Amino acid sequence: MTGVLSKLGRANDAPFPPVNLLADFAGGSILCVMGILMALHSRGSSGEGQVVDAALSDGAAYASSFLFSSTNQIPMMWPGQRGCNLLDSGCPYYNTYGTKDGRYMAVGALEPQFYVALLKGLELENAELPHQMMLPKWGEIANAFKDKFASKTQSEWVDIFSKLDACVTPVLTFAEAAEHPHNKDRGMFLEVPGGIAEPSPSPKLSANPANPDLTIPKLGEHTMEILGSLGYDEETSKTAIE
Question: pLDDT tens for residues 96-143?
């Protein structure tokens, strides 16, 4: 309903949903919290409350403002159909590539200095390829990258690009991400009971950092308690649950 889904997907294929991150979370809960904070801030000076209207469709569109504004103001970023542009997998140096062992590497070498480092890591000469901004030749560049990445395993590429500032990283599973040295140094994940890794609160505040409760309640664990706090007696609550 927002037009955003029309931008998501590879060329000559159907649009694909971004899990439920765009509407439910980015456009929903996060913007709803922002609206509540703005309303509280306004109350501090006005002394009055207000309704926070946080519709998922409105939020998804607003969270995607860059897509709308860049389409209108920077048409060179979106010259073609879905999947043929700079940021939607059409660009060979902003994409993912399969490796010899069936894993993937992510490439985000948009800036010239990162692109040079990318070519160095792939052992490709700039003179061998069309210029990076020659859009009609992007397919040729992509094929060269695809062949190169397929020649080594993910771990081999990680070792190569760990020594270069090329914006090239491995595509990790949740378990691998929790154990990655960079993420561990950042404290990006917390281990909750049962050995499951969950992302830690972000952004991190220096003066009063978050101290989350790592206990994950079981499904329905507090239902009776909540219904009781709402004034329902035990018999009515049990009937409602059943």
Answer: 999 999 999 999 999 999 999 999 999 999 999 999 999 999 999 999
Specify the DSSP class assigned to residue 113. Answer: H
DSSP 135-162: GGGHHHHHHHHHHHHTTS-HHHHHHHHT
- How far is 85 from 201, CA to CA, in rounded Å? 33
- SS3 (DSSP) at 218: coil
Candidates 57, 52, 46, 54; CA nearest to 23 is 57
H or E segment and range at residue 228: helix 223-229
Cβ-proximal residues to 210 (8 Å cutoff; 6+ apart), any chain: 200, 201, 204
Tokens at 137, concatenated? 């030749």
What is the set of active-site residues? Answer: 24
Task: With CA atoms as reference, report the closest residue to 181 among 158, 160, 204, 206.
Answer: 158
**Contact assessment for residue 13 and residue 83, using Cβ atoms and an 8 Å cutoff:** yes
**pTM (two decimals):** 0.87
Cα of 225 vs its chain's centroid, Å: 36
